Amino acid sequence: MGADFVQLSLTPILIGVLAAVACAIPGNFLILRRQALIGDAISHVVLPGIVLAFLVTGSLGTWPVLAGAAGAAVVAALMIEAIKRLGRIEPGAAMGVTFTSLFALGVLILEQSDTSTVHLDVEHALYGNLESLIWLDATGWESLIDPTALTLMPPELIRMAAVTLLVGALAAVFWRPLKISTFDEGFATAVGIPTRGLGFALVIVSALAAVAAFDAVGSIIVIAMFVCPPAAARMMTDSLERQVGWSIVFAALSAFLGYVIAGYGLTWFGIRAAVSGAGMIATVSGVILALACLFGPHRSRIGAPSAS
Amino acid sequence: MHPILEALLLSAGYNSALVAIGAGLLGAAAGAVGTFLFLRKRSLVSDAISHATLPGIGLAFILMVALGGDGRNLLGLMAGSAVTAWLGLTLVEWASRRTRLAEDAAIGAVLSVFFGFGIVLLTVIQGMSAGKQAGLQGYLLGSTAGMLLQDAVVIAVGGLLAAAVVVLLRRPMTLVSFDPEFAAAAGYDVRRIDLAMLGLVMAVTVVGLKLVGLVLIVALLIIPPVTARFWTNRSDVAVLLSAAFGAVSGYVGSSISASAPDLPTGPIIVLSCFALFAVSLLFAPDRGVVASLVRHRRFQLKVHRRQGLLALAHGEPIYDRLTLSVLKRGGYLRPDGVPTDLGRDQAAHAYWDERRWEVARRIHQAEALAGRYDGLTPMEAVFTADEIAAIDRQLGPVSPAGRT
User: Fold this and answer.
1) ipTM of the complex
2) Does residue B296 sit in the same domain as residue B239?
3) Helix pair angle (A277-295, A240-260), 10° resolution
4) Which chain B residues contact residue A88 at CB under 8 A?
5) Does A88 lie at the interface with B, CB-CB under 8 angstroms?
6) What confidence category does residue A272 fall into, taking pLDDT thresholds of 50, 70 and 90?
7) What pLDDT was estimated at residue B286?
8) What's the domain count of chain B?
9) CB-based burial label for A7 (10 Å; 0-12, 13-18, 19+)
């Protein structure tokens, strides 16, 4: 755990943890509202947005990427709404139509255009490249208090930290209305909470978290972190406050353990192979969820048929 | 001849012709199976199944290489992907039955975790045999480049088999999709039929992996049924239409993709599906956007005509532009805004109809007939002549507006 660790592993781990937490917080509300697959849809549709943004601006900077992804998310939301209303189609199928076609469009444009100058391909979009987000200018733990080295940290870290803070702050500020409208929409409307606006805002915040995380770590982590840590947390408690707490712990744990196992785990078995960090983080979150499903104190559904 | 036309006419080489036919068969099977899934409102389960195939592909590859064979054997990879897809499906079922997770959360969890683990395996394979796994990346987004003749045969036969099973199981599957309680009461084993349905979804997915890729194969299971839904309200017709849409998309998509190098197969097939969907969304006769716009416009004109005539009968001034133009075009008003004879006549008629309805609603308060009042339906369309006569007796002497 010396200079190498700070240089090569500290920033990817931090970025992974922040991305996981940023997705897990809105994920708690999404799974309670039966909208768990929104994360799946968002992470598919941002691809065409990012590709188009790149083609228009010629760069993969923060703002073009964010604008493109946000634009694509809005287009997708409108498309889903339009298909649902105009065709009277159930939401799941409307979502399926939208995200597969937009993703296919993204892949097609990507294959047709010359993106060889930048790091943009389908594989990158799917599983990111956490391992490349290293802090080359660090010389050891002391770099953490060295201002010049700190300014040369990967920009993704600052971005991800800002988004995570924003997501956390929004959840704290809107906690009461969010909680009430998630559990009892009718009551929430009756006491004057704008439930529709709040629901839309939740999707927007999820999209923001997804886009920021997608840029850094790829879409697998995004989908896994929206669902697995909150789902595991739901097996642990009946209180929403504690559930969000558990989900943050599970998300951070998945990111940390996943990255460490991917980076060092196989060498313990004597295999010298680099393994995808993003994939391993998703796998660890799945193992945590499986354990929670099997042993969590609140795993069973209230009123569910006992055995059938 | 243009390369796309050449491919469409099956004259771009034996292999690509076989692939196009295979893709058509696969599309037909996927469209048909997907319809039942769609009617059962479980379309997105297919997303979990398709993503869960990836670790199976990786494990099968590792196993085949470890046994000294060629890791890229399509049948072996298909068998492996079927095993993990089945595992993923079982986990979704188990989690949504036995734990408090809703089905959508279970789907999200399974698809992301299995896919993540699959990616881990792909990177392991990359490490253990550099270069050899290049073929495996093709399973993510589908590719026909370098497809062997035997692969094309496997896809064609697989698509045909899946389509045949759909034909055999169509009745129980229709029953379960519409009314599972009735199906259970009629002696069908609903759980088993559901599993058979999902097994078919899995078969289609596994067969389509090489061609469309596991990220996009769900599109073939979701988009054609939704497209078919725009054209019909009958389930048997929907299944046939959906199969036809799937077949056309698969065939045309793979032909277009074969005609040029930079056109990846999976996305092109999906976009062909979407093109059919978009056309249906806009132009389908009953549920399409154009049809509902026309219907809405007609309704609007009817309301304006009626309200305009009533205003004429009451001698009230009309300011609304649309109402004025509707009345003028109908010949009820002269261009200077004075009612014509026809206009007066129709206005009196509308007024009289309104008065009759008032009475009718008083008499038939509790009856559904009176509920038919919407300010548009003429009295004669709802009540019989002697009922109307009774109403008229209640109205008493002829009203000042006169009756027609």
Assistant:
1) 0.90
2) no
3) 140
4) 287
5) yes
6) low
7) 83
8) 2
9) middle
